[in-house]
Amino acid sequence: xxxxxxxxxxxxxxxxxxxxxxxxxxxxxxxxxxxxxxxxxxxxxxxxxxxxxxxxxxxxxxxxxxxxxxxxxxxxxxxxxxxxxxxxxxxxxxxxxxxxxxxxxxxxxxxxxxxxxxxxxxxxxxxxxxxxxxxxxxxxxxxxxxxxxxxxxxxxxxxxxxxxxxxxxxxxxxxxxxxxxxxxxxxxxxxxxxxxxxxxxxxxxxxxxxxxxxxxxxxxxxxxxxxxxxxxxxxxxxxxxxxxxxxxxxxxxxxxxxxxxxxxxxxxxxxxxxxxxxxxxxxxxxxxxxxxxxxxxxxxxxxxxxxxxxxxxxxxxxxxxxxxxxxxxxxxxxxxxxxxxxxxxxxxxxxxxxxxxxxxxxxxxxxxxxxxxxxxxxxxxxxxxxxxxxxxxxxxxxxxxxxxxxxxxxxxxxxxxxxxxxxxxxxxxxxxxxxxxxxxxxxxxxxxxxxxxxxxxxxxxxxxxxxxxxxxxxxxxxxxxxxxxxxxxxxxxxxxxxxxxxxxxxxxxxxxxxxxxxxxxxxxxxxxxxx
Length: 531
What we know:
The protein has helices spanning 11-19, 32-38, 55-60, 79-84, 97-113, 115-123, 149-160, 174-180, 187-193, 213-216, 236-244, 290-308, 324-348, 365-381, 393-399, 470-480, 511-518; strands at 2-5, 23-26, 44-47, 66-69, 88-91, 141-145, 164-168, 183-184, 196-199, 223-227, 248-253, 279-281, 354-361, 403-409, 417-424, 429-437, 440-446, 449-453, 458-465, 485-492, 498-505, 523-530. By secondary structure, it is of the alpha/beta class. The chain has three domains: 2-94 and 291-309, NAD(P)-binding Rossmann-like Domain (Rossmann fold, 3-Layer(aba) Sandwich); 96-281, NAD(P)-binding Rossmann-like Domain (Rossmann fold); 327-530, CATH 3.30.1330.90.
């Protein structure tokens, strides 16, 4: 058994693998092409954040059984491509949360007191302190976007500095905010009231470019921004302009959308933000403490060894090892269950304190465990900062205060098998049902309306008054933005009352178009859902 390590990890992790009789080949700084040329020889690949493990590389890894990222996120690994190849993908979700929180605090002090700039000035023989008049944290307002584990650690430390701490995270229970003494606010309130904004959210379709020109215009003049989460959450071009315009007084970024090679001493890398004296950029140091590096290296080494020895990976991001025939049988149900979780959370954007899942028909009892985890994974991917996978989704749901109830019954009506998910929020109970036929998952009940549609990559979920002309109005607006409607499902329970419409479309509808639909007479609610 051979493992290729393409980025530096702590020696403790390497020793674990060697002690298991696994051959370890550390080859740092390789190009994408070089890795593709040799990866076919290896049973496992260990990376950090610089190596982009795309579909091409995965296809070259004909003997790969496991890909491990020594860190929290997994956005540099094509998980879908790995799953199709039957390759387990693992990470170290908890290994560096303290390191990331402490770096965030360090960068906050740096941009409030200009510590890096003052240091460089002194190094150059210029000791004029009047150039570096800072701002105190005391009695200022800190806004935290993403109130997961790291966000909560940062909140504790900022409160100790005497700051008012507010946070935006619509998917976290009120109890957690109360536990940490943090005010729960909406996104616009956070933008308008914060003297400091610090980001602790994963990079998803929903959070990509979460902060761009529109958001900067809502902020206080003189706001300071820190991002130790993921590059791409802030639009860097718009940040540059906001700094030049004087909206943002200073920024600190440990992550960038396009990052350099962290193993090379010199390289041709350019980012306009590097030109600005009031921007502090660090080379993705969030996990770079001795403790965190040991934690993540040991964690992924144990995971890799377990998989190569035929065991189960506790931090598998994708599916655990199934026999090929069994995987093919349950895959449509897994995809359906995950889609149901994603559809609910995007349609409602509210916290569910209880999720009941009922399996009807002949669904294998062993499979239902993974179906429940898949549904929770879909729900939580849009609602927590942590990396969510099929192994940890139930634990994360419990940590969020969600009661999960699973039951099984033999009757399934006219369908061979059926999955029903009942979501209880503080205001109402909503239900989704789905089934599989022709090896394809279908939603057959959408919040009490009979439908029959396949969950697709881009969908418009619309609630409207049942009256003539609605289909035409919606089709016209979507067409104005060059988006084609591939399929449309319309359902009502009673003439003239509320109806639902589910449209599969060929691409993501811009926010402007969604707002136009929302403001159309007769439309009650619009969601641009992405699976």
